[in-house]
């Protein structure tokens, strides 16, 4: 069994075949999915929670992506405040800093990041972080707001092996996406053994970043197996060990209930 710790299956890319996508995930052994309701306006958060309400193997997170925080209004914050305590919401995110695209001004990203960490503290849930080309500032903000007490996931990790080690040293979870399968991503594969096994996560970040051999296609949770194979090899583990370890880690950080025994 695998858990996709970060998937955007709430998005319009899946409107035509969402049920088939979820069925294919299960057929591939990806039994559980954490849907990240944070793309664009808060209708993403609403859709993710609705999906989690109707499918007991799906959980949701809520926030606004750093790309979009410049557009945030009081109404957007009100939606997140209302949804954050929902029992099917397991984390606040994705929030963070993206200095690669800079779609929103850096100061707006930093302020929203701090405010989402505060929301996570008030509801007692962990924080899922999107950090790109901003690892130093991210570490400072996470430390200043003592986010480690809540639990921190650095999703779709794209830093250096030293960045991975620094996050792990702070006790944060580090999640690898399909990028780790790309030929040019040797620094990411070198980062995997710098993360203690009990802090390793895997994700699709679908519909983006399909792993090899699906690269260029729309990504979906069933493709997580390809990423798991590469991360297992980089970690010096068997596929089965990696699956059991990352499943346990994902259940721990998001406080998912124990898996039902197969009937
Ligand atoms: Zn992201
Ligand atoms: Zn994402």
Biggest sheet details = 8 strands, parallel
Q: What is the averaged pLDDT score?
A: 97
- How much helicity do the residues have? 25-40%
Spatial strand arrangement across the major sheet: 1-2-3-4-5-6-7-8
Low-confidence stretches: none
Rg, nearest Å: 17 Å
Number of strands: 8
Q: Quick one: CATH superfamily?
A: Metal-dependent hydrolases
Number of domains: 1
- The dominant shape is globular
CATH names the topology as TIM Barrel
* N→C terminal distance: 15 Å
Provide the CATH architecture: Alpha-Beta Barrel
Please give the count of helices: 9
Distinct bound molecules: zinc ion
Strand content: 15-25%
Specify the structural class.
alpha/beta
**What is the helix/strand order?**
EHEHEHEHEHEHEHEHH
What's the CATH class label? Alpha Beta
Give the gist of this structure.
It is built from nine helices and eight strands. With 263 residues, it is of the alpha/beta class.
Structure write-up:
It is a single chain. This protein is α/β, with parallel strands linked by helices. The chain has one domain: TIM Barrel, CATH 3.20.20. The chain is built from 9 helices and 8 strands. It has helices spanning 18-27, 43-54, 74-83, 106-123, 135-144, 161-169, 186-191, 224-235, 239-254; strands spanning 2-7, 30-37, 58-62, 89-98, 127-132, 152-155, 173-176, 200-202. Helix 6 (161-169) links the parallel strand 6 (152-155) and strand 7 (173-176). Helix 8 crosses helix 9. The longest helix is centred in the middle third of the chain and has 18 residues, at 106-123. It is globular. The model has no long low-confidence stretch (mean pLDDT 97). The structure holds zinc ion (2 copies). The site of one zinc ion has 4 residues, from loops.
């Amino acid at each position: 069994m695998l858990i996709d710790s970060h998937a955007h299956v709430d998005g319009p890319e899946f409107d035509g075949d969402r049920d088939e996508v979820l069925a294919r995930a299960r057929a591939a052994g990806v039994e559980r999915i954490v849907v990240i309701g944070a793309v664009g306006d808060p209708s993403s958060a609403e859709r993710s929670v609705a999906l989690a309400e109707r499918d007991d193997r799906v959980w949701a997170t809520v926030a606004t992506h750093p790309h979009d925080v410049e557009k945030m209004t009081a109404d957007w914050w009100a939606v997140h405040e209302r949804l954050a305590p929902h029992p099917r919401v397991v984390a606040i995110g994705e929030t963070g800093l993206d200095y690669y695209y800079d779609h929103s001004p850096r100061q707006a990203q930093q302020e929203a990041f701090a405010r989402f960490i505060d929301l996570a503290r008030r509801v007692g849930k962990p924080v899922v972080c999107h950090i790109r080309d901003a690892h130093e500032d991210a570490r400072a903000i996470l430390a200043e707001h003592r986010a480690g007490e809540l639990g921190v996931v650095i999703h779709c990790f794209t830093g250096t092996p030293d960045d991975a080690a620094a996050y792990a040293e702070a006790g944060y979870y580090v999640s690898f996406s399909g990028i780790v399968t790309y030929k040019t991503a040797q620094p990411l594969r070198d980062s995997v053994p710098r993360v203690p096994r009990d802090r390793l996560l895997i994700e699709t970040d679908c519909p983006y970043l399909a792993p090899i051999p699906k690269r260029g296609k729309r990504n979906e949770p069933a493709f997580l197996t390809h990423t798991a194979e590469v991360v297992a090899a980089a970690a010096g583990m068997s596929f089965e060990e990696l699956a059991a370890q990352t499943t346990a880690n994902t259940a721990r950080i998001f406080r998912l209930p124990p898996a039902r025994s197969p009937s």
